[in-house]
Amino acid sequence: MKLLKTFTFLPLLCFGVEATEHHGTVELALMNSVGNKYGDEYYVNITVGTPGQLQSVLIDTGSSSTIFLASDVPGCNETLCPQTFDLSASSSFDAVSPGALYAPFGGAAALGDFVTDVVQIGDLSISKVPLGLAHTFRSRLQPYTGILGLGYSSREAINRTMSHKVPKHPSFIEVLTKANAISSRLFSVHLNKLDMYGSILFGGIDTAKYKGPLTTLNCLNSKHDEVDQWYLNLQEVTMQPHDGPELTLLRSTQDEPRLALVDTGSPDWQLPSSAYHKVLGFAGAEAPDGLWPLPGFNRPCRQVAYGAANTTHFQLTFAGNGTNTATLDLELADLFTPITGDDGSATVDRYGQPLCMLRIVEVEENNEPLIISSSVMRAGYWVFDLDNGQISLGQSDLETTSSNVVQVQAGTDGLSRAVQRLVPESQLNDVEGQMALPSTYKLSTATNTIGYTTGAQFYPSSAAKRSGESTMRLETQRRPTK
């Protein structure tokens, strides 16, 4: 997370996103605000049903199901649930497996049905997409939204009591592949600064969004003896205070590897107790006293501005089951996000200073996997390759305003053929393959383009000006229908 020194909140704006053709890829704008909340999660806008109903969904590499909230979720209102899906208003809706959805995640849960309906992303429309429709939803994070699961299909959230009679459904990215919207089960994520749009690119990469080489790492086997999760080894984490020697926060060994899950759907970086308290000591954040009912450890935002002098830096080194390693650099400011009130306004301390919250959480020393959260991921450019069970990582270029989208073809050398500055690696483990799908997915071009309501009141005024000059034009890209 990259913060500016002062925050001025502006009126809510709605921006249309212009569609541009790029063969074999689909790119969507990423927003980090929904409703009156800012900076916790990352969302894309899609529509579901006929006619389309707008849904802002959280992108989640830590899950595999795509889930929407039904209009009958208890307690839902416009504040708690900014968008819900009214199945009775869709002429293309079809119930497939009633009661089969059970998705527990991070102290939350979604319960409901598996259904199919038309989904539109940008100006691309796909019919009969398998979806979860939650009639009950609980979460510690508010407001409640749908989820776009970006994991392997086998991790689908099926109620165990019904798993023997409910067929497995393909993940969203597998549907994109089967519909011939993209060639490979691959997507790349550029979260960008908090005050700018990011992007998620299906079927390709944007070589202008990172600096230096892109390094490929083999994901690790799960308990199913194949790659079906985004697991890496967190080899080492070091911290360089501005006024002291470098400190090692944690280090993997052959006997005690530190398993990590790369998870766009989690805002808080998990650190074992020993590392957590070291970071807390140098972060300068304070726990709110009894007069201030605020979450976590906080600090005035102006004191943790991105690019500030005399700040603390971190290096995270990742590895897979091969010989490659990749190191990600981040600043202390990456680990802070602004705190907003229920009405979307900045939360201030007793001196009127806008406050930011430290996005790290303490876990037990032997806890695994450690969650590599979106607060850490902002510093990197991430390529998730389901076909080959690999993650490729580069240092994000947070100052770029250019774009160079390149399609990645299917195959073990697809990324190598698309990228010049690549440090490749050959996967040694078995990888979950594509599902044998009896259904066909009709691909068509929609007659309308999805707008993006972005919560611009949560952005600094200077950032809103920059966004108007550059990132507001982030296009939704599609493959032309044949």
Automatic annotation (TrEMBL):
Gene Ontology process terms (BP): proteolysis
Annotated ranges, domain Peptidase A1: 42-394
Domain of life: Eukaryota
Name listed for the protein in its UniProt record: Acid protease
Family: Belongs to the peptidase A1 family.
One protein family per Pfam: Asp
MF terms (GO), sorted A to Z: aspartic-type endopeptidase activity
Coiled coil (residue ranges): none
Swiss-Prot/TrEMBL keywords: Aspartyl protease, Hydrolase, Protease, Signal
Leader peptide range in chain numbering: 1-19
Species annotation: Aureobasidium pullulans
Region (Disordered): 461-482
